[in-house]
Inverse folding.
């Protein structure tokens, strides 16, 4: 059963954040070939995590119109087709112009299950075939590879939202690979960051991820001197969600 925020909090997060047929063929040869090709491909949806950015709509001119802000840590599904060999080709648009600033960017087409809407999301902001998780301790080390000796200079604070890739640990090359999770995050200074963290430093609990989303949004709103009533509603939701996972 899905859990939803109280209406005011949901609206606050959403608002602040959030083919025609061709002509008939004269012969059956081309039609038969098209049908065969259609059978070979199967439409699939692959889970992905939004780590930054916004949702966009593709307009009639083939350009992207801004729709609304995305909440980092939101799970969406990327449209794609799967061939007989098992490979998946995702619905991707390269070098599309954004009407907001004229810049060219790459986009994936996604479906938002809760909103029941389809949008486009920029490539940099999306981790495909991944799930949203949150860091549950302060000063968590990020490793370059799934090796205890491969520490980097990056550390994550409690509440940081990351995407964890759905993949098997590489135990053939790394003895302790099963201790690690392969992650991706977005840093406002360094951009897209990938690496490994110890899996026991993360939580996949939807309640804990939601708590991290609410905390980040409250901090952002306070920096923007936003409406105190909206902040108060989010703080109330945070308290309720926080008590739910702590009671489990």
């Amino acid at each position: 059963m899905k859990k939803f925020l109280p209406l005011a909090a949901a609206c606050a997060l959403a608002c602040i954040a959030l083919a025609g047929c061709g002509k008939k063929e004269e012969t059956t040869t081309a039609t038969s070939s098209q049908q065969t090709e259609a059978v070979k491909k199967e439409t699939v949806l692959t889970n992905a995590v939004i780590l930054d950015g916004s949702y966009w709509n593709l307009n009639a001119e083939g350009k992207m119109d801004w729709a609304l802000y995305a909440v980092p840590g939101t799970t969406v599904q990327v449209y794609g087709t799967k061939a007989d060999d098992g490979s998946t080709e995702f619905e991707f648009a390269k070098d599309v112009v954004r009407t907001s600033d004229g810049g060219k960017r790459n986009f994936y087409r996604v479906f938002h299950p809760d909103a029941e809407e389809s949008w486009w999301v920029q490539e940099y902001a999306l981790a495909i075939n991944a799930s949203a998780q949150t860091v549950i301790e302060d000063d968590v080390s990020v490793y370059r590879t799934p090796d205890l000796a491969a520490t980097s200079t990056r550390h994550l604070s409690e509440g940081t939202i990351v995407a964890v890739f759905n993949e098997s640990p590489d135990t053939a090359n790394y003895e302790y690979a099963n201790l690690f999770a392969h992650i991706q995050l977005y840093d406002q200074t360094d951009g897209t960051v990938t690496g490994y963290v110890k899996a026991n430093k993360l939580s996949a609990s939807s309640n804990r991820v939601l708590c991290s989303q609410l905390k980040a949004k409250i901090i952002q709103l306070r920096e923007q001197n936003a409406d105190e009533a909206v902040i108060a509603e989010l703080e109330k939701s945070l308290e309720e969600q926080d008590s739910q996972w702590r009671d489990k």
